């Protein structure tokens, strides 16, 4: 049994932050006051004179704009610190991490697509006495920078004169130019002169020159200068776009090639001088990707880049393997997401990809490995190599690309109050939260949005995509006192978090939350936000939906008191915004309630990995003795409840050989651990043929489990479910129905013994849906060659269907679902709503008086002998007849 996550509790509090499936989110921090904030009374000050105005806080108080750091001030961790070249002073601000912050990658971001007019206005008021501001957009020359700017203008002069073969003087000038190009003024100076641009682009394309190890290659320097000049500099990009056509027609003097040909030369040269090591090569490629990223913000340049197969250059960067290439490849991935796939980052859908996916076999061949259709292959390869990193950039790129290839659409958007996958409309003021209708909008406004709307509006006005979920959760706790008070008594594991590698990132998130909430970034305020963040990260549940994936986090102080066990006596079921605690087995008075923080059917290594963020080792019997699902099932006190389920012989649940035979139990443990990596594999290829081949390969890997008939041992159940889904997508509804029945009778009852476990209820609904869409004729088999070659089996399968009263079976399964719904939630749970709708349609069918009489008798008195006999015949026997064909299908289709 695990240590408790809470010390005590107050009243029930629910905190849910909704998100969409495109799983990538950049960390966002505040836009706070431009000047140094006035210190609070309790802040320790440093005073070197008697004048109070000369005093400043001992601990530097950061905003999102650079401020001077005094020599004797203490700097908190995680700030962005720089040396101002114009005055020689050290300055710092809140750090805005780039796309490479691994601790924040994959955090969900709120999205919206259509604006809702709330009918609310907010007057733009200028406080009395506020200073006058100059018009936005005026780029002024920095003052007093004659000495600092000298290397920059020296480089400009040498580039214009074509003196690019110089030695140390030229290298020093380029270094100074790179340092200042980040400034908008200097960046514009770089781009407004065609001769300078031409020289830099030609230099960036020339990678054949060898340099000493301590000298940055000039192609690297040129790329870094161009990338810095274009970063967040609209005026500079406008200048480059204006000159682009003329630049592409120019010739590079050293090579004699057109600048266009030079620009589209490989980022990873085929022939590399022996003096250049891999790290230098990867670093230079990263600088060039940065320059391309800046150019991609121009519609004209981006269109030409695509026309000239520029994506092939970026794909070349994903081919090399090794740690030296990780940051460069991440930069490529982020460029593709932000430019072509992620609308919240400004992407314009429909531009790319322009070709269909190439087969993996073809992409493995070096000569064709950088075809445009091979993006999927290389991203999937990188994802597989980093499968243990749930926030790796490749996961978001892989999922978005797969969804786009499949149907030309992005994953469904989720309504951020009731969590329904539907068309959503955004709050017209902050554009950060979205709703399906006015009722949800009003409910969320009352719950929390009235307090956070102004905060989220700041984010939108800064052009940022949204806030990471934990940051938004902290802000809600800060701006709504009753939320913060509800978290007061929760355990935060602050010491454990402080000793973890994620502590610096958590400090940054807390600082951003405090600043955005308008509380400032003083030590006291940030510490309060950090404490709340630790409590949220320790006690929150991931709001996971089997169809939509993770759609938010849930935090309830009472629910957080439940300890963990891999053999829990209770479970948490989510219905909309509610989390329902349901018993999985009888619980006596004063007995501790235990739930599972992870999927308890996974092998021990996977469970241990999932529990790592909670900072404890599970000591339950399942973990201590490494019990398999059959052993846990055999000891369950609720086996007998399966008399009202699809299980033919309830006693079999306690008699499986893997529960009694030590050698078989050992085999179950061994195979499950050896094959645990298959749990991370999921082929989302739009090609059904490709997916079938991948599933066949994985099934072959599971032959040990199949031979031992260990159908309920992971990863076999997950694989069989994917096979069933494949059949449905192939429109082979007969095979899909048979395999779903097999899973519902031979896998799920051993994994989740309780008949009304949500997984089992969803399995019933799937069988009911397939029954409603499956006719006992050849049309339901689809038209693939694979199916056509199995006439004998198909005839037996169709004969089995013909002997079943599909309507009555479907009707009784739907009634079983509705009986299993948590009391009072039938109108809120999507599963029960769907079942009720299907049942209403069946009830309207004419000529079924005799069947309805029997079904009604069973519904009213299910324990009566006649009702039991009818249920056994009309449901259990029929499902079992279909399930008995399952193994034959698996072996016939995937075991050969």
UniProtKB/TrEMBL annotation:
<dbReference type="InterPro" id="IPR050869">
    <property type="entry name" value="H3K4_H4K5_MeTrfase"/>
</dbReference>
<feature type="domain" description="MYND-type">
    <location>
        <begin position="415"/>
        <end position="453"/>
    </location>
</feature>
<keyword id="KW-0813">Transport</keyword>
<keyword id="KW-0256">Endoplasmic reticulum</keyword>
<comment type="subunit">
    <text>Interacts with KAR2.</text>
</comment>
<dbReference type="InterPro" id="IPR046341">
    <property type="entry name" value="SET_dom_sf"/>
</dbReference>
<keyword id="KW-0653">Protein transport</keyword>
<dbReference type="GO" id="GO:0000774">
    <property type="term" value="F:adenyl-nucleotide exchange factor activity"/>
</dbReference>
<dbReference type="InterPro" id="IPR031884">
    <property type="entry name" value="Sil1_fungi"/>
</dbReference>
<keyword id="KW-0863">Zinc-finger</keyword>
<keyword id="KW-0862">Zinc</keyword>
<dbReference type="Pfam" id="PF00856">
    <property type="entry name" value="SET"/>
</dbReference>
<comment type="similarity">
    <text>Belongs to the SIL1 family.</text>
</comment>
<feature type="domain" description="SET">
    <location>
        <begin position="453"/>
        <end position="598"/>
    </location>
</feature>
<dbReference type="InterPro" id="IPR011989">
    <property type="entry name" value="ARM-like"/>
</dbReference>
<dbReference type="GO" id="GO:0008270">
    <property type="term" value="F:zinc ion binding"/>
</dbReference>
<dbReference type="GO" id="GO:0005634">
    <property type="term" value="C:nucleus"/>
</dbReference>
<keyword id="KW-0732">Signal</keyword>
<dbReference type="GO" id="GO:0005783">
    <property type="term" value="C:endoplasmic reticulum"/>
</dbReference>
<dbReference type="Pfam" id="PF01753">
    <property type="entry name" value="zf-MYND"/>
</dbReference>
<dbReference type="Pfam" id="PF16782">
    <property type="entry name" value="SIL1"/>
</dbReference>
<protein>
    <recommendedName>
        <fullName>Nucleotide exchange factor SIL1</fullName>
    </recommendedName>
</protein>
<keyword id="KW-0811">Translocation</keyword>
<dbReference type="InterPro" id="IPR001214">
    <property type="entry name" value="SET_dom"/>
</dbReference>
<dbReference type="GO" id="GO:0015031">
    <property type="term" value="P:protein transport"/>
</dbReference>
<keyword id="KW-0479">Metal-binding</keyword>
<dbReference type="InterPro" id="IPR002893">
    <property type="entry name" value="Znf_MYND"/>
</dbReference>
<feature type="signal peptide">
    <location>
        <begin position="1"/>
        <end position="25"/>
    </location>
</feature>
């Amino acid at each position: 049994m695990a240590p408790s996550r809470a010390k005590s509790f107050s009243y029930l509090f629910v905190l849910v932050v909704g998100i969409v499936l495109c799983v990538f989110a950049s960390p966002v921090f505040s836009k706070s006051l431009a000047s140094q904030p006035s210190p609070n009374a309790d802040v320790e000050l440093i005073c070197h004179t008697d004048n109070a105005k000369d005093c400043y806080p001992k601990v530097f108080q950061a905003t999102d704009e650079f401020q001077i750091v005094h020599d004797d001030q203490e700097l908190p961790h995680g700030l962005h610190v720089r040396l101002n070249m114009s005055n020689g002073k050290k300055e710092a601000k809140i750090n805005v991490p780039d796309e490479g912050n691994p601790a924040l990658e994959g955090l969900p971001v709120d999205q919206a697509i259509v604006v809702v007019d709330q009918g609310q206005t907010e007057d733009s008021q200028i406080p009395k006495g506020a200073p006058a501001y100059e018009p936005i957009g005026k780029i002024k020359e920095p003052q007093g920078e004659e000495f600092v700017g000298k290397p920059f203008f020296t480089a400009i002069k040498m580039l214009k004169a074509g003196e690019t073969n110089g030695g140390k003087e030229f290298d020093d000038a380029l270094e100074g130019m790179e340092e200042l190009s980040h400034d908008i003024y200097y960046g514009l100076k770089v781009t407004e002169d065609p001769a300078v641009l031409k020289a830099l682009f030609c230099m960036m394309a020339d990678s054949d020159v060898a340099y000493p190890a301590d000298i940055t290659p000039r192609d690297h320097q040129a790329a870094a200068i161009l990338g810095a000049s274009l970063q967040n500099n609209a005026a500079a990009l406008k200048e480059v776009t204006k000159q682009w056509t003329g630049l592409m027609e120019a010739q590079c003097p050293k090579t004699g090639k057109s600048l266009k040909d030079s620009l589209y030369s490989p980022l990873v040269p085929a022939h590399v001088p022996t003096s250049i090591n891999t790290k230098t090569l990867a670093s230079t490629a990263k600088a060039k990707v940065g320059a391309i990223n800046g150019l991609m913000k121009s519609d004209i340049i981006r269109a030409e880049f695509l026309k000239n197969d520029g994506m092939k250059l970026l794909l070349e960067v994903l081919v090399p393997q090794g740690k030296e290439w990780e940051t460069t490849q991440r930069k490529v991935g982020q460029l593709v997401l932000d430019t072509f796939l992620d609308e919240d980052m400004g992407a314009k859908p429909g531009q790319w990809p322009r070709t269909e996916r190439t087969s993996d076999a073809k992409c493995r061949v070096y000569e064709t490995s950088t075809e445009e259709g091979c993006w999927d292959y290389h991203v999937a390869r990188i994802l597989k190599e980093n499968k243990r990193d749930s926030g790796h950039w490749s996961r978001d790129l892989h999922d978005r690309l797969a969804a786009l290839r499949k149907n030309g659409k992005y994953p469904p958007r989720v309504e951020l109050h009731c969590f329904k996958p539907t068309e959503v409309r955004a709050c017209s003021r902050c554009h950060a939260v979205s709703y399906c209708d006015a009722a949800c909008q009003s409910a969320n406004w009352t719950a929390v949005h009235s307090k956070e709307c102004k905060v989220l509006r700041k984010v939108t006005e800064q052009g940022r995509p949204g806030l990471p979920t934990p940051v938004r959760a902290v802000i809600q706790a800060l701006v709504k006192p009753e939320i913060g008070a509800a978290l007061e008594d929760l355990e935060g594991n602050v010491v454990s978090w402080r000793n973890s590698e994620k502590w610096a990132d958590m400090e940054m998130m807390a600082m951003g939350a405090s600043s955005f909430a308008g509380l400032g970034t003083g030590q006291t305020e940030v510490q309060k936000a950090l404490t709340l963040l630790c409590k949220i990260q320790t006690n929150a549940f991931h709001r996971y939906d089997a169809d939509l994936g993770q759609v938010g986090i849930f935090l309830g102080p009472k629910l957080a008191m439940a300890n963990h066990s891999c053999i829990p006596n209770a479970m948490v079921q989510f219905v909309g915004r509610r989390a329902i605690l349901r018993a999985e087995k009888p619980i006596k008075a004063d007995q501790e309630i235990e739930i599972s923080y992870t999927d308890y059917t996974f092998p021990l290594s996977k469970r241990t990995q999932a529990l790592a963020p909670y900072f404890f080792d599970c000591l339950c019997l399942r973990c201590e003795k490494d019990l398999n699902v059959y052993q846990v099932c055999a000891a369950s006190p609720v086996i007998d409840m399966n008399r009202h389920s699809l299980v033919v012989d309830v006693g079999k649940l306690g008699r499986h050989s893997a529960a009694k035979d030590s050698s078989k139990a050992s085999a179950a443990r061994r195979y499950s651990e050896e094959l645990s990596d298959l749990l991370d594999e999921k082929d989302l290829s739009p090609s059904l043929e490709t997916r079938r081949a991948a599933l066949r390969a994985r099934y072959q890997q599971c032959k040990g489990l199949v031979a031992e008939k260990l159908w309920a041992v992971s990863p076999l159940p997950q694989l069989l479910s994917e096979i069933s889904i494949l059949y449905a997508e192939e429109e082979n509804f007969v095979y899909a129905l048979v395999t779903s029945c097999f899973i519902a009778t031979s896998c799920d009852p051993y994994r989740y013994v309780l008949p009304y476990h949500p997984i089992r209820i969803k399995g019933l609904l799937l069988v009911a849906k397939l029954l409603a869409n499956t006719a006992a004729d050849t049309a339901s088999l689809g038209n693939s060659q694979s199916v056509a070659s199995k006439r004998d089996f198909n005839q037996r399968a169709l004969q089995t269907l013909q002997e079943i009263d599909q309507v009555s079976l479907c009707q009784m399964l739907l009634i079983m679902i509705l009986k299993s719904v948590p009391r009072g939630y039938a109108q809120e749970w999507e599963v029960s709503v769907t079942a009720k709708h299907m049942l209403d349609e069946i009830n309207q069918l004419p000529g079924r008086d005799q069947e309805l009489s029997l079904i009604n008798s069973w519904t009213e008195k299910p324990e009566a002998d006649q009702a039991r006999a009818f249920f056994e015949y009309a449901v259990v026997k029929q499902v079992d007849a279909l399930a008995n064909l399952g193994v034959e299908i698996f072996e016939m289709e995937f075991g050969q």
